[in-house]
Amino acid sequence: SQTIHQWPATLVQPVGSPLSLECTVEGTSNPNLYWYRQAAGRGLQLLFYSVGIGQISSEVPQNLSASRPQDRQFILSSKKLLLSDSGFYLCAWLRGGETQYFGPGTRLLVL
Amino acid sequence: DAKTTQPPSMDCAEGRAANLPCNHSTISGNEYVYWYRQIHSQGPQYIIHGLKNNETNEMASLIITEDRKSSTLILPHATLRDTAVYYCIVRSLWSGNTGKLIFGQGTTLQVKP
Fold this sequence. Notes:
The complex is a heterodimer of chains A (111) and B (113).
Chain A: E1 3-7, E2 10-13, E3 19-26, E4 32-38, E5 44-52, E6 55-58, E7 65-70, E8 73-78, E9 87-95, E10 99-102, E11 106-110
Parallel strand pairs in A: 2-11
Antiparallel strand pairs in A: 1-3, 3-8, 4-5, 4-9, 5-6, 7-8, 9-10, 9-11
Chain B: E1 9-13, E2 18-23, E3 31-38, E4 45-50, E5 55-56, E6 61-64, E7 70-75, E8 84-92, E9 107-112
Parallel strand pairs in B: 1-9
Antiparallel strand pairs in B: 2-7, 3-4, 3-8, 5-6, 6-7, 8-9
């Protein structure tokens, strides 16, 4: 069966520090992968998606970047965090071209 | 993808059916209706999806009107654990679609004892 992992589960970082969040999927190959963010009290916003290794599409201009170094690995990064980067970050994958399944998320607090 | 409209909040008594409505009047012929829910502090959970026929699985039933301009998610016997934000999303499954989901504000369902 397929599973999706995210780590860390929680992260507290100072403003100006770098960020690296990782997402991996097991049990499938060449999935579409997605990064979403949910700010406190708000809805989910799609940040990036990837249809294959090295292929990244950005949905909104921002302080973050994404990379896909391996087929089942998706990384969200920042060189210098802002207070506004705080939020709940969710990774998802597309199964069978039809249904997205979400990971458990990473809660990021930038102080 | 077509836009959806949902009531911001609803209450339901425990053990009763919860009927969550969704309007998608601009839906096109190749767009499916998806439902997800998000329990507090967790990632969204897929519930069900359909095109034009009614669908049922172990979690819920999806009723889509004949003109496909609206749908209703039915939780037949709501429990306290069903308290969550429910999202109705319309998405095309054509081969060039990247599969991304556009989330609205959803409906906050509060199941009360």
